[in-house]
Each structure stands twice: as C-alpha cells, then as structure tokens.
Amino acid sequence: MAKWGEGDPRWIVEERADATNVNNWHWTERDATNWSSEKLKELLMGLQVESEEGKCEITEVSKVEGEASINNRKGKLIFFYEWNLKADWRGTSKSGIKYKGNIEVPNLSDENDMDDLDISVSLCKDEPETELLSLMRSEGVKKIRTALASYVDFLKTEFTQGMILPTANGVTKHPAGQLQFKLRMCLCFQIGSCSAAPPPPNTGVKIPTCKFSLKDTFLTSPEDLYRVFLNQEMVQAFTRSSAVVEAEKGGKFRLLDGNVNGEFQELVPEQKIVMKWRFNSWPCEHYAMVTLTFTDKGNETELKIECRAVPESEEERTRDGWQRYYCHAIKQTFGYGARLC
C-alpha cells in the first residue's frame, strides 16, 4: 500500500471540490442521439441552390435513423456516430414547372471521411427529366456535404461542453477547442451562443468585391416584417443569441454575439432599410452595403435584399447566411412561412 501522499495522482481527490472523475481518468459517456437528430434536421432543412435553370430547396428531412455518443477516457474525447438520412427536395424551373426529388445519405459515420460520403440525389418516380437534377447533384451535394461537416463540428464543440472537467490545477484541455474559431469563420452565422472572434488587422490592401440580390416572400404585412429587423427582442428571438439594435438613422447594431455588426444608414418605415453590414472576420472597417426593400403583395410581403461591396471570397457564405439565418429563421420563428419567389 502506498504511503499517504504518495499514491497515483490520477486517483487523488482531496484537491477537487467535487471529487468527480479526477483528472478525467474514468470512462464517461454521453448519448448524443436525440441532439444529433434535431441538429441534422436544422442544418439540412431549407438548404437552397439556384442557377439559370431554376431553384431547388430541401423541404423535408424524412428519415434520420442512427445513433451518436461521446466518450471521455483519460481526458480524450472519442466520438461515435452512424446515420442513415433521407430528405425530399423541390425544384422550380425558370418557366415555373415544379419538380420533386429525393436525397439519401446512407453512410454518415465516424468511420468515413466527409469526402467519401455517399450522397444520392434523384427525381421522384414519373417526374420528367430536368437540368435541376444536375444542379442538385453538383451544387446541392456540395451544400449538403458542408452542412453535414458542420454537424460533426458542432458535435465536437457545442455538445461536448462540460465533458472534460477541470483538473486539480484548474487546467482544462479540450481537444475540440481548436474547432471553435473554425465554426465562427466557416459557418454563415452561429445560431447558438458563442463569443465574437477578434477582427483581423487592417492590412490596407484593396480587396475585390461583388454584389448580389435575393428575393423572398413572407406571409405578413410590410409593417410587421419591417419591425422584425429593428426590434431588439425580435432580432434576439430569430437569431437565438444576444443582440444590440439601435433602431434609428446612424444607430448601431451588433448581432450573434458580435459576429455581425453595422450601422443603419436609412430607415423608411414599412418600405426600406439601408445599412452598413459586416462579418467581424472581414478586414477592419470594410462594410457591405445592404438594402432591404419591402413590397406589399396583398396578403404577403416581398422582401428584396441587395448586397453590395461583399468580399468576393465571402459571397457564398454571405448569400447563404441571408437566406438561411435571416429569411428562413424569421419564417420559422414568427410563422411567416411562404413560397420563395
């Protein structure tokens, strides 16, 4: 028997207030199945791709079958997940013809690299051939693969909080910590709670920019939709995070725990909002100019989003962010769901 004070330090509990899993030596396990099922649906629902041929969108995640868990042994996290996914997509050609199809992912697993993932896209039986199928098999598959990679990153960061406990000297080593910055930079917007990434230094180099526009339709009045963007409580509701909104000309806004910020340049009630808008990861003092135009269409409101001076390298992330984490999130939060224009 070891003398007092000479035992294996892995088992010493006297310096730990809770005396629980000292130095993370014991095996612990957390079931991530239910959380993963909801997260996969959240990431896939509403994904859109568009080309000169038309537009496609994932409208339903019909099957999420599998399991996921995380194990902590000797301070190391081990991830297990295996999923069989099925989803439905809808497409509309430029001429207005509607199409329906299916998506299947049979092998989302910790044993497979994301690049090796099988993502099968097809048209429903008796649907005529369309170029939209090619669009989904190319750009659609890319977006699906990115969303599934985001699930794995979230699993390794968001869900693992508290699994590795502080050791006797107060130091916690989290092997997934390096992914936090990646999530903030690579995902369009962080819906969950996170701290803002520090802005990069101002390099003084002129960067190439681009512009794009989007349209969406909401089952509400221009007055109500206009208020969603300016009411701080409503902004916090659809972003699911802290926000500061000064609803006046020259007023500042800070969303998603500081990852998005800007200033209102022009406010025309129920008609138009013009703002300077930026990701915190963009070069210092570089802002895009975003104009929101609200048009009354009777029982619904058409929203036109025009973004100018967006860094070329950030176009896809910015476009996807406005589609998913503004438009889709507003519809989902306030029940303003309507067809896409």
Automatic annotation (TrEMBL):
GO-annotated biological processes: protein folding
Alphabetized Gene3D superfamilies for the sequence: 3.30.530.20, Activator of Hsp90 ATPase Aha1, N-terminal domain
Gene Ontology MF terms in the entry: ATPase activator activity; Hsp90 protein binding; protein-folding chaperone binding
Compartments, record wording: Cytoplasm, Cytosol; Endoplasmic reticulum
Record-level GO cellular component terms: cytosol; endoplasmic reticulum
SUPFAM superfamilies (UniProt xref): Activator of Hsp90 ATPase, Aha1, Bet v1-like
Keywords, sorted A to Z: Acetylation, Chaperone, Cytoplasm, Endoplasmic reticulum, Isopeptide bond, Phosphoprotein, Stress response, Ubl conjugation
Main location: cytoplasm
Limits of the Activator of Hsp90 ATPase AHSA1-like N-terminal domain: 29-161
Function of the molecule: Acts as a co-chaperone of HSP90AA1. Activates the ATPase activity of HSP90AA1 leading to increase in its chaperone activity. Competes with the inhibitory co-chaperone FNIP1 for binding to HSP90AA1, thereby providing a reciprocal regulatory mechanism for chaperoning of client proteins. Competes with the inhibitory co-chaperone TSC1 for binding to HSP90AA1, thereby providing a reciprocal regulatory mechanism for chaperoning of client proteins.
UniProt family annotation: Belongs to the AHA1 family.
Entry protein name: Activator of 90 kDa heat shock protein ATPase homolog 1
